[in-house]
């Protein structure tokens, strides 16, 4: 097929939508079995759609008219959401009822576990849900001076494009942050560095000394040194918006520093009496409301006892490690970033009042793992595993190897229980397949965590028990 034919558009086709994929595209099937993905369409709807792209087995189409509307269709709250030109690419599912969004994510999790791992969880965990709006305490806004239009844009990228969307409000960030979007445009527009500040990173939190005081940390990436005038403008902006705390980033992430002394940025885990200071570029969970429930649920599932040793793999700042250390007999947290490990050690000292058990943090690359290394880390009764998108392949593969040949590790015992928290159902499914089919575990439970409402991201958790225990 020629490129021209591949991209040809014709008159809109009338189609019946019977499913939704994780990108929130409606899926329809033609009589010859060919699949058509339709942006903006929902299951149960009869629609007209214009085909934009044709391949042998599938087509890509855009919704032009809805003839029969789904009962799950809702009015999007944000005016920047949609299929229109210039629409923001930050959300994908605002047109879909919340319960249906969660149901799709649950199905994606189950499908991945089954198709990629040949694993079926014995029970499904109730989805963890939190606020639908204002949940996103971390974000990376792009900044662009569009000379032709004489405006500075501060926002996310447009749908399927590298252009910055012209957003004036955003409903997934806290309302106080949404209200800063236009003032931030004016600020950058007034700066000498109008062309050389490509990004503002957001990290919301509280004052470590007073958790009732919000802190909005804004990290300004600047490609050239800032003039005295610009520094004064940033300070004036901070005075006009007292929760704002400016950080500057002249080069790589390790150059991030506070513009002026101010409150210490932190988040809290009140159930465990823990206050967690962090730097705005450190990894922290995007949604602090869900994080509190997630940590609480993970700990309940782990059920660490005072006589048990626990390892927290990919521990970051110690988000799970420190709460586990309020319950277990001994805890080891392992993490790849030296900077995060340094911070987790400081946080351990800061939380001595809450933490009871001996706790250690170690920095190591967990994408490389050997049986000897696993032996050195020692036997633990339970593991918590919370890897990045790539998953924890090296770790579970080593566990599987030791299970296949226990003679290589006399005296070492595999953990009885593993609680696995995942931000990518595909890598969770792959690792679950290894745990269940090669390492001697059962998948006793799995469920989704609605960490990112209205987006296609699927956060989930799964529990594995060593068979026969
Ligand atoms: C999803 S985060 C979880 C962090 C922590 N459990 C939390 O809840 O805040 C994944 C962590 O894995 C770390 N990481 C990424 N690649 C790694 C690697 N190759 N070895 C060890 N840690 C790694 C990241 O620095 C990050 O802290
Ligand atoms: S990310 Fe914000 S601005 Fe973009 S569509 Fe979602 S709510 Fe609207």
TrEMBL record:
Residues 6-65 form the TRAM domain. InterPro entries: 23S_rRNA_MeTrfase_RlmD (IPR001566), MeTrfase_TrmA_CS (IPR030391), NA-bd_OB-fold (IPR012340), SAM-dependent_MTases_sf (IPR029063), TRAM_dom (IPR002792), U5_MeTrfase_fam (IPR010280). The active site is at residue 423. [4Fe-4S] cluster binds at residues 78, 88, 91, 170. S-adenosyl-L-methionine binds at residues 285, 314, 319, 335, 365, 386. Gene3D superfamilies: 2.40.50.1070, Nucleic acid-binding proteins, Vaccinia Virus protein VP39. It catalyses: uridine(1939) in 23S rRNA + S-adenosyl-L-methionine = 5-methyluridine(1939) in 23S rRNA + S-adenosyl-L-homocysteine + H(+). Keywords: 4Fe-4S, Iron, Iron-sulfur, Metal-binding, Methyltransferase, rRNA processing, S-adenosyl-L-methionine, Transferase. Its EC number is 2.1.1.190. One of its GO terms (molecular function) is 4 iron, 4 sulfur cluster binding. GO terms for biological process: rRNA base methylation. Belongs to the class I-like SAM-binding methyltransferase superfamily. RNA M5U methyltransferase family. RlmD subfamily. PANTHER family: 23S RRNA (URACIL(1939)-C(5))-METHYLTRANSFERASE RLMD, RNA M5U METHYLTRANSFERASE. Catalyzes the formation of 5-methyl-uridine at position 1939 (m5U1939) in 23S rRNA. This is 23S rRNA (uracil(1939)-C(5))-methyltransferase RlmD.
């Amino acid at each position: 097929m020629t490129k021209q034919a591949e991209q040809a558009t014709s008159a809109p086709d009338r189609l019946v939508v019977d499913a939704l994929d994780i990108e929130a595209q409606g899926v329809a099937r033609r009589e010859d079995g060919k699949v058509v993905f339709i942006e903006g369409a929902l299951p149960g709807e009869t629609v007209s759609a214009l085909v934009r792209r044709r391949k042998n087995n599938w087509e890509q189409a855009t919704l032009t008219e809805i003839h029969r509307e789904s009962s799950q269709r809702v009015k999007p709250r944000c005016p920047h959401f949609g299929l229109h030109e210039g629409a923001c690419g930050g959300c994908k599912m605002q047109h879909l009822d919340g319960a249906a969004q969660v149901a799709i994510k649950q199905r994606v999790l189950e499908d991945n576990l089954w198709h990629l791992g040949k694993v079926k969880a014995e029970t499904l965990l109730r989805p963890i849900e939190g606020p639908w709006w204002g949940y996103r305490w971390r974000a990376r806004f792009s900044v662009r001076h569009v000379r032709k239009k004489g405006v500075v844009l501060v926002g996310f990228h447009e749908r399927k494009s590298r252009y910055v969307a012209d957003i004036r409000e955003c409903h997934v960030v806290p309302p106080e942050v949404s209200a800063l979007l236009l003032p931030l445009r004016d600020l950058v527009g007034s700066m000498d560095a109008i062309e050389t500040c490509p990004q503002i990173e957001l990290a919301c939190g509280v004052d470590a000394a007073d958790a009732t005081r919000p802190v909005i940390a804004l990290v300004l990436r600047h490609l050239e040194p800032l003039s005295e005038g610009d520094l004064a403008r940033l300070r004036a902006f901070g005075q006009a918006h007292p929760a704002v705390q400016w950080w500057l980033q002249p080069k790589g992430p390790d150059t991030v520093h506070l513009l002026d002394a101010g409150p210490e940025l932190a988040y809290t885990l009140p159930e465990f009496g823990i206050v967690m200071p962090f730097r705005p570029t450190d990894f922290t969970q995007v949604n602090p409301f869900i994080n509190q429930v997630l940590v609480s649920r993970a700990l309940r599932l782990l059920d660490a006892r005072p006589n048990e040793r626990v390892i927290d793999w990919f521990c970051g700042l110690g988000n799970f490690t420190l709460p586990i250390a309020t319950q277990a007999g001994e805890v080891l947290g392992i993490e790849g970033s030296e900077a995060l490990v340094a911070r987790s050690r400081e946080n351990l000292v800061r939380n001595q009042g809450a933490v009871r058990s001996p706790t250690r943090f170690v920095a190591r690359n967990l994408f490389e793992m050997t049986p000897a290394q696993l032996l050195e880390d020692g036997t633990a009764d339970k593991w918590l595993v919370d890897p990045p998108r790539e998953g924890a392949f090296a770790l579970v593969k080593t566990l599987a190897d030791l299970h296949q040949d226990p003679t290589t590790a006399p005296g070492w015992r595999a953990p009885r229980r593993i609680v696995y928290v995942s931000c990518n159902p595909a890598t969770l499914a792959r690792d679950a397949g290894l745990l269940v089919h090669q390492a001697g575990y059962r998948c006793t439970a799995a469920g989704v965590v609605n960490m990112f409402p209205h987006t296609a991201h699927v956060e989930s958790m799964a529990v594995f028990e060593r068979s026969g225990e």
